[in-house]
Design brief:
Layout lengths: L1 E3 L5 E3 L15 E8 L7 E8 L4 E4 L4 E14 L5 E5 L3 E4 L4 E5 L3 E8 L6
Antiparallel strand pairs: 1-2, 3-4, 4-10, 5-9, 6-7, 6-8, 6-9, 6-10
């Protein structure tokens, strides 16, 4: 991944070589492309999931996600609501939401979250 800085910042190939989330039985990778650039309270990057055990994640911040490729099957753990999100769809997860992420094959998303960097 290459980063170009200035008034306009750019990350090249931000979706490649994502670090594993190290969740047992779950094939999931995530990597921030930007971590609070210029002091902004926002982080953005890519999330990849392959068909495996589900990933359950609790949002401690607001986040939006754009589905770059594939299909995510999302279940709100509190309400049971199930949403299928396909390539081109945009999602919003409010702070406090717990979501189960699944995919029938593979899915790639780009996210932007209102948070400070957390490794």
């Amino acid at each position: 991944m290459t980063t170009v800085e200035g008034a306009i910042m750019k990350v090249e190939k931000g979706d490649e070589n994502l670090p594993s989330m190290n969740e047992p039985g779950c094939e999931a990778w995530i990597g921030d492309s930007f971590r609070n650039p210029g002091g902004a309270v926002i982080c953005s990057g890519f999330f990849e999931l392959k068909a495996s055990e589900p990933l359950v994640y609790e949002y401690t911040y607001d986040e939006t996600k754009f589905v770059v490729d594939g299909t995510f099957v999302l279940t709100d753990q509190d309400t049971g609501q199930v949403v299928e999100a396909h390539k081109g769809d945009v999602l919003f997860f409010p702070k406090g939401t717990t979501v189960k992420f699944e995919t029938p094959d593979r899915a790639l998303g780009f996210y932007a979250g209102h948070r400070s960097f957390a490794p």
